[in-house]
Write a structure and sequence with these properties.
heterotrimer; A mainly alpha; B mainly alpha; C alpha+beta; B: mainly alpha; C: Immunoglobulin-like; about 35% helix; elongated
Chain lengths: ~220, ~600, ~260
């Protein structure tokens, strides 16, 4: 929404970019700030829930495979989770906090309410960095396990450990890609609100999923 | 606030280069046509494989000229080996279920028409949509490559049960690389379909144009939406299963291979895995998959019948709820594929009850279709013939499901030709009829030309009668105990059944040849068919309100507005006995339908 | 063409029903004690399915015949009762039908799978492997020797992986490539797979059960008629699946004892 501090926005109906059904309009305002308005239901809102649902189903399948496999034979060898995992969990949860801060600031920025304010890319970069550290930390966890002689095929317990953590890490990398996309779109001021919200939702979901996996591994492993 | 009726602007500018227009296109219509082309190619490959199989079953030791060039080891001198039969059979099933029955009625027609039927310019994520097709196409190439790599494709059936398909090359020809290629292909396919489902669901929920409430969506749109919901859950489970089986092959894990198994006098290195785990994961996907195959055809057939009966269905709402019920129930019944698998016999009973209950929505759907014909003004053309044929075939195939739903009867019918007859009638025929009906119906809108009606009717008659000649006898064979997946019939009790197989083979070759009429019709009409008007069927849904073929953004720069329920047939309007959804004209209905 | 379509459906429906009514291709005679319930279930289902099938096809044909090619000014009609009647009808008729079939079918299933074998059932072990069935009898000591997969050697005919040198119980075990059983005696069949999934199917006995690698599965049944029957594999197990079979010989008790003695030598 345009503020009362500036002239009402001039909308050139013949020259609007980025509009689709349920898209948003970039309305030029003074001072080079852009405001983003949603005229109808955001398109990606159901999409991200759809994607999250599919990912849940995939991990549900892995979970049931783990439970069945553990019960089907006496060869399950429990092992202690590499301690770095707890630190990684902390990193991922903090990154969610960072992203929430980023998201709110981006929202405010894109509405043009704080003219002259800096783009809130810093907090996005912090999230990115924490996310990358998380993935790196996962890799370290794998090397720690390998040092103890636990490889992918060593035991069904280690098999599931690697499969679950690797699959999660791959999806986190996807989330990092989404964050990069947000940073890019923000940099040329074409970021739609929905892209930001969906990316944030996905990222928080990655955190929640990780907490679930930690619980599963801790209980079952 | 400024004026809300903003003229449409494009998600993406119209493409100009050949590559962007026809190859890596973001346009859902092009993607739909690409899927259709893939399905067509896959269908003829799958059909050719079935010819080879049927020929071998009827004339076991006769050489098939030229087969040795496809595989020197699989068919020395043109005579098919037992393992090659199984390899062809596996590929036949895999190609047909995945690359034809999931691709054509859902991905092809759905991609083309769902956005148009809701009034949108395109799907919300055209790049994901484009990726969806190319990932699916790559999956097809990976699968086909198994014909030419190593010792051929996997021979373990489209169901790829463990441990045969998890222990590697020691299990038999094609069981090493062949299985890994199969699992990779299918994992890729799952990714492609998940991307597609994402687009379909978002399109239906978020891109409906003004006036298009959910209940005003055409039945075809509902069927695509419901199917994407099923697919979202099903493919998300098959993909991890494929990943785990690939790991059992290449990484030495033992998810599915138990301890103490011995091949060639050597104890296998795997241990502790669960045979039944694969079956549970696979069928959790596999049963919903067959509803993915049939529900779009149900929607398409409903849509076409409505246009040709010139009258509403007795209740459109009931059809929608019934399709939804099928989708939900489909997840509760999957254990009926595993009645004698060694799973807990109480589980077998537990699965059999929802399986019997799923008869109810299926019956309701057939009843609504049939009894809506009462008092109608039915038009006969290729599209309506295939739609009516669909009802007949679906009844025939559905009725045999009645038997298989009961574990005690399944003792006698499991793994026999009865099962093969059942699923071929519902999937191989009924769902295919839906694809054919959709083609005859929508071809004018997609290409601007009509298909040839004489050829269409010839195609229908040969296919309809031929399909019954092929698949009805399968049920008799099954009741006599004819076991399936046998490359040759050596058992004493099977000898008297061989003449039946010969009859079936001849019927199959003739019916298959009739499909070439269809192929010719499609290609010929594309270039030489009679020009079509925008609405040749006097139909009501949004695709018929736009130009032929639809312009790049579907509606030529405007958002349509929807004033009516779909299927306002049997009314008095200025254009005839129907009113289009986008027409502001208020009409009297002859009688109220709900 | 509409009338031709209707006529074709009717003809196809009738032609399809004929082989069923004439019992042209049926399951062979039941020689089991539990099969009667299965056969009864099958007949009832066939009757209900058959009636539904014929009714649905005939009604479809009739409506297509009657309501095609009508005059442009003909009146549209709505089936009396509309959707509501049909839904209620389907729920009641089909619902009751399927529930009845389901409930009555439980007993047929339970007889085979849920009831335990009787205490004096004769145990026979069967091992399925690519591509043959082998059977083991416990011998005069009445005990089966232990199984050692690492000792399996087809070349030296140690099919089951027995260790007679160190395992006393294994010394008198009898291994055969065909299954002989005495008539009217309950058999407890102990099933395991050597390599991949297989299945045990004897049509006349009304039994079918998969072998599950890694699991010990069992069946019990009683044969009531002397004769020679085929056991066939019904779970795709590899290239030799089509040829994987064994003979089941049901004999008088005397003949069986003679057979067993001969096998033991």
């Amino acid at each position: 929404m345009a503020t009362t501090l500036h002239e009402p926005p001039q909308i050139d109906l013949n020259n609007i970019s980025g509009v689709g059904n349920g898209g948003s309009i970039n309305i030029p305002t003074d001072g080079g700030l852009r405001a983003t308005l949603d005229h109808s239901r955001p398109t990606s809102s159901s999409a991200i829930w759809v994607a999250m649902f599919a990912i849940c189903m995939m991990f549900a399948a892995f979970t049931s495979a783990l439970i069945v496999r553990k019960g089907s034979s006496m060869d399950w060898q429990s092992f202690a989770l590499p301690s770095i995992l707890y630190f990684n969990t902390f990193l991922l949860l903090v990154s969610s906090v960072a992203l929430e801060i980023a998201r709110r600031r981006v929202d405010v920025f894109m509405k043009g309410a704080r003219s002259g304010a800096e783009r809130p890319t810093l907090w996005l970069y912090i999230t990115l960095a924490l996310g990358l550290l998380f993935v790196a930390g996962q890799y370290i966890a794998w090397t720690q396990l390998r040092a103890e002689g636990m490889y992918l095929a060593t035991n069904p317990s280690s098999s599931f450990f690697y499969v679950l953590t690797a699959t999660h890490a791959l999806h986190v990398l996807g989330g990092l890609g989404g964050l990069l996309y947000v940073v890019y779109k923000l940099s040329n001021l074409t970021l739609r609100r929905n892209a930001m919200v969906s990316t944030a939702r996905y990222w928080h979901f990655m955190g929640a999923l990780w907490v679930y996996l930690m619980l599963l591994l801790w209980i079952k492993l | 606030m400024h004026d809300m009726s903003v003229p449409a602007a494009h998600h993406h500018a119209p493409p100009t280069s050949f590559i962007r227009k026809h190859v890596f296109s973001l346009d859902h219509k092009v993607i739909g046509k690409q899927y259709y082309g893939l399905a067509l190619l896959a269908a003829y490959v799958g059909m050719g494989l079935s010819w080879l199989m049927r020929f071998h079953l009827a004339w076991n030791s006769t050489a098939i000229p030229g087969l040795q060039f496809l595989s020197a080891s699989g068919a020395p001198g043109g005579v098919m080996t037992p393992e090659y039969y199984l390899q062809l059979m596996t590929m036949h099933g895999t190609i047909m279920v995945f690359f034809v029955l999931t691709t054509a009625p859902f991905a092809a027609f759905g991609n083309y028409f769902l956005p148009i039927q809701v009034g949108a310019e395109d799907m919300p994520f055209p790049r994901f949509n484009m990726m969806s097709f190319w990932v699916t196409f790559t999956a097809f190439l990976v699968l086909m490559s198994s014909f030419f790599v190593g010792d051929g494709p996997t021979l373990g059936g489209w169901t790829q049960y463990a441990p045969l398909n998890a222990i590697g090359a020691v299990g038999g020809p094609g069981q090493g690389t062949g299985v890994v290629l199969w699992a990779t292909s299918i994992a890729l396919f799952c990714v492609g379909q998940l991307l597609g489902a994402l687009n379909f669901i978002s399109t239906t929920l978020d891109l409906r144009v003004k006036g298009m409430s959910l209940m005003r969506l055409p039945l075809s749109a509902w069927s695509w939406f419901i199917t994407s919901c099923i697919g979202l859950t099903a493919f998300a489970v098959l993909m991890p299963a494929c990943i785990l089986v690939i790991l059992d092959h290449v990484a030495g894990t033992s998810f599915f291979v138990a301890s103490g198994l011995v091949m060639n006098d050597q104890v296998l290195p795997h241990s502790g895995g669960s045979t039944l785990l694969w079956q549970h994961l696979f069928w959790f996907f596999g049963h919903p998959e067959v509803y993915i195959a049939i529900v779009p055809s149900m929607g398409i057939v409903s849509h076409i019948l409505l246009a040709n009966q010139r009258k509403q269905m007795l209740s459109q709402r009931v059809l929608i709820y019934s399709m939804g019920a099928l989708a939900v129930l489909s997840y509760m019944v999957y254990g009926h594929h595993m009645f004698v698998s060694g799973m807990n016999p109480f589980s077998s009973l537990a699965f059999s009850f929802p399986t019997l209950v799923i008869t109810i929505p299926s019956t309701i759907i057939v009843l609504i279709w049939t009894f809506s014909l009462y008092g109608a003004k039915l038009r006969i053309n290729s599209a309506s013939l295939f739609s009516l044929g669909f009802i007949s075939m679906f009844v025939s195939g559905g009725v045999s499901g009645f038997f298989l739903a009961q574990p005690s009867i399944d003792i006698m019918l499991h793994a026999t030709y009865f099962v093969v007859g059942h699923f071929h009638l519902v999937m191989g025929v009924a769902a295919m009829f839906g694809i054919f009906a959709g083609t005859y119906f929508w071809f004018p809108k997609m290409t601007g030309r009509m298909m040839n009606e004489t050829l269409g009717k010839a195609h229908f008659w040969l296919s309809f009668v031929g399909a019954y000649c092929i698949f009805m006898p399968f049920h008799y064979l099954g009741m006599a105990g004819n076991v399936r997946r046998y490359s040759t019939f050596t058992d004493d009790f099977l000898q008297p059944l061989i003449p039946v197989h010969r009859f079936i083979t001849i019927a199959a070759l003739i019916t298959g040849a009739a499909q070439l009429i269809f192929l010719f019709n499609v290609i010929y009409s594309r270039f030489k068919g009679a020009p079509a008007v925008d609405n040749p069927w006097e139909a009501t849904s949004l695709e018929w309100s736009t130009a032929t073929p639809p312009p790049f953004d579907n509606f030529g720069g405007k958002h349509p507005i929807v004033y009516h329920d779909p299927y306002q047939y049997g009314v008095k309007s200025s254009v005839g006995d129907y009113v289009m959804q986008t027409s502001p004209e208020q009409v009297e209905t002859e009688f109220e339908e709900k | 063409m509409a009338k031709f379509f209707a006529a074709t459906i009717v003809v196809i429906a009738i032609l399809s029903a004929i082989p069923i009514l004439r019992h042209t291709w049926t399951a062979p005679e039941d020689i089991s004690t539990h099969g009667a319930l299965i056969d009864e279930q099958m007949s009832e289902t066939m009757a209900e399915a058959g009636i539904s099938f014929l009714a649905a096809q005939f009604i479809l044909a009739f409506f297509v015949w009657k309501f095609s090619n009508r005059a442009p000014d003909a009146k549209l009609k709505k089936f009396p009762g509309g959707a509501k009647g049909l839904v209620i009808g389907a729920l009641l008729v089909v619902g009751i039908e399927v529930m009845a079939l389901g409930i009555f079918g439980v007993k047929a299933w339970a007889n085979v799978y849920l009831d335990a074998p009787s205490a004096n059932a004769m145990p026979i072990q069967v091992q399925a492997g690519q591509f043959a069935f082998y059977f083991r009898y416990p011998g005069p000591d009445g005990k089966f020797g232990g199984l050692h997969p690492e000792l399996i050697n087809e070349g030296s005919q140690n099919i089951f992986g027995l260790d007679p040198e160190h395992d006393v119980d294994a010394r008198d075990d009898i291994v055969a490539a065909e299954m002989a059983i005495p008539v009217n005696k309950e058999i407890h069949l102990l099933m395991h797979a050597k390599d991949v999934g297989h299945s045990f199917f004897v049509r006349e006995l009304r039994v079918q059960q998969d072998f599950v690698p890694g699991l010990d599965v069992s069946l019990h049944f009683t044969a009531t008629k002397i004769g020679k029957y085929e056991i066939v594999c019904t779970q795709l197990c590899g290239l030799g699946h089509y040829n994987m079979k064994a003979y089941l010989e049901v004999m008088s008790q005397q003949d069986f004892d003679d057979w067993l003695k001969k096998q033991g030598q």
